[in-house]
Amino acid sequence: MNSNLTNINHCKNCGFQIDHYSFCPDCGAKKITKRITFKNLTQEFSDRFLNLDNSFIRTFIHLFTKPKAVINGYIHGVRKRYINVFSYFAISLTISSLYSFILGKYKDDIFAKSMISEAQAEATKITSDFSFEYQSVISFLTIPILALISRLVFLNYKKYNLTEHFVIYLYAYSHITMIVSIITMPFILSAENIFIVVGIQMTTYIIYITYVLKKLYEISLKKILIKTLLFLVIMTVLFVIFSFIIAIIMMKMGIMPNTETSSI
Q1: Which of 71, 166, 226, 260 is at 20 to 30 A from 144, Cα to Cα?
Q2: Residue 151 structural domain
Q3: In the 8-state DSSP scheme, what is residue 10?
Q4: Domain tally for the chain?
Q5: Treating both helix axes as pointing N-terminal to C-terminal, what angle do 85-112 and 162-190 enclose, rounded to 10 degrees?
Q6: 6 phi-psi bin (left φ>0, alpha ψ -120 to 50, beta other)
Q7: Does any domain span residue 13?
Q8: What is residue 23's three-state secondary structure?
Q9: Against a cut of 0.90, is the pTM above it?
């Protein structure tokens, strides 16, 4: 069987005429002339994700070594050198969802080793079940909240507006979530106390975000530490408020037992 398809005269993506082109001059899509095979499917995967010159590997490495180039590049119109911010978030969300899925399978054993009381075990189980079930929603909501807090903390700086802070956290939060999910998985599964691992995770988040913001704003270590402290204070206050609201909602829905009535 001939592996070639019939002649392609128009782009399959946008309809632009591409008789003598290898790539569409209108949308940039590659002209595909051969039937899909396992060989060219694996080749495409390799070129897209495993090639050291591809945008994913470059973005992944540079978000460690020069996050300012990645984030500022996207904000100021660079679209080919690094992977799109929403695509990067989608990849991170896929990895963190897999992380949550695996933890969900073993969460009872994990929490059983870390609990000191039945009441603590029950409260943690309810919270973890809610987190695992709505993990994607929580991720979507976390980024705009972090962006808003960050914009308030850096209100005296006009370098980035609220939308640009949103881009900053789409990249930074997605990146560190991906790294933490991959690296800490074996430790969570084997840890005697999961709260120690969670504490390390949160510390890693804070250090990386602080590092990114310092690079972006080019401010002194003293100033970024003050900004980080202010950020944590605001985030803690909001966390307490949201936790209180969610607890009330869960009690109203019957998901969480009312401690006042259960103690009678």
Answers
A1: 226
A2: 55-255
A3: B
A4: 1
A5: 30
A6: beta
A7: no
A8: strand
A9: no
